[in-house]
Amino acid sequence: MPCFFPCFDWNDEAVEFVGGSRQHDEKREEKPMMPPSVDRLPAGNGGLNSRNSFDTKRELVNGFKRDQVNVSEKRQLSGLKLEALNRNKSSGSDFSARTFTFRQLAAATKNFRQECFLGEGGFGSVHKGRLETGEIVAVKQLDRNGLQGNKEFLVEVLMLSLLHHPNLVNMIGYCADGDQRLLVYEYLSLGSLENHLHDLPPDKEPLDWNTRMKIAAGAANGLDYLHNVASPPVIYRDLKSANILLDADFQPKLSDFGLAKLGPTDDKSHVSTRVMGTYGYCAPEYAMTGQLTVKSDVFSFGVVLLELITGRRAFDSTRAHGEQNLILWVKPLFNDRRRLSKLADPRLQGRYPMRGLYQALAVASMCIQEHPAARPSVTDIVTALSYLASHPYDPSTPLTPSLQGGEVENGRRQEAERIKTYLDDQKVAPNERDDSPKDTGTFLNQNFDRERAVAEAKMWGANWRDKRMANVDPGHTNSNS
């Protein structure tokens, strides 16, 4: 496998590789991150022992290994749990997950029949099920020889028991029965974002521009909760389109928290860990050094945003050599404003707002900056994408040409001229603009001018936010341009 980042040689211990429609997972083993205790884990037969002690070693029954526990991580997990308990006590809610026996979940999924099968990955398989209460759920059955082991199972149970947000998947419960490990989630009828972007069957409509921006804004909100509301912060570490699930209204929910890591606290700038994640989404500094920060998630989010804009996979081995890696493909296009139209998903057929395209590209380009400090905070990303999602594009008055049939090449030439005209028109003073970054096109043409990029995104978002607070529509002029 060719190296994605300079000076980093991928080998058989490196991150999970994704190529084409098949996923080859090759993750590195990491120090265990075991919670000090998890309430309501079943004791006795078919369960886990819950201990209150903070010994540096712990043995968990029923197949769980005896491992060395990182004392610092135990302290952080304890703090996260205490914070969640305090929040839930004040609100009167219950943070604990339900427990199930393997027999119950086998019955719910008709003994895991093929007709209930939803999908699979390196962790195992997912089946649709109906509980005795009539509730429809998704049951994730971990492969005992797969990539998500006991440690990742416990992390996911803990994280999703304590963290609740509209843009995080809701974990209903789990099963730790003998050597069986299963997780029970709310059922999300539309599946993953990946399934709506790639390899669409002929009878499936592609996502329109407004839905894509809605999904991007919602996913950013979920990430913002992990980074800025959870205490200590949680680094997702495996943000990708396959892990963003969609409900019936296309509201996104982040899922699969087995690789999640508690972020740095106090005066620490990062946490150090072995490289785990998915090829094409990993931030370069994390891939090369193992130093993980919240900005590592921001990089991965930028890749997902580019997937939404372009309709391309983060890595696609079926494409020509120079187009297999999404980031390596987009960077030269960012440097040539006449070619920016190539970044829009052809399946949109030109039905997107010109200004919205540039603003979304500006956000994505800042997220994938090589240096973490140059990437925007997820809060700034939420501000920018909330603006785009709150100003839907009206397809009845398209400002970009419709690219259909044999008119594709002609349409691209027309759009290139339209882009040139648009960019020339945007060269105005900041006080003459009220809803987009100053000269976005020029920004995209300057090979990632980092400080200016971040400053412009903040100016754009703050300007829109201030106007919104003053009950003034920031997009009252040329909102579709």
From TrEMBL:
ATP binds at residue 140. One of its GO terms (cellular component) is pollen tube tip. It is found in: Cell membrane. GO terms for molecular function: ATP binding; protein serine/threonine kinase activity. This is Protein kinase domain-containing protein. It is a lipid-anchor. Residues 22-32, 424-438 have a biased composition (Basic and acidic residues). Residues 112-394 form the Protein kinase domain. It comes from Dendrobium thyrsiflorum (Pinecone-like raceme dendrobium). Keywords: ATP-binding, Cell membrane, Kinase, Membrane, Nucleotide-binding, Serine/threonine-protein kinase, Transferase. Belongs to the protein kinase superfamily. Ser/Thr protein kinase family. One of its GO terms (biological process) is pollen tube guidance. Residues 20-52, 424-448 are annotated as: Disordered. Its main location: membrane. The keyword GTP-binding does not apply.
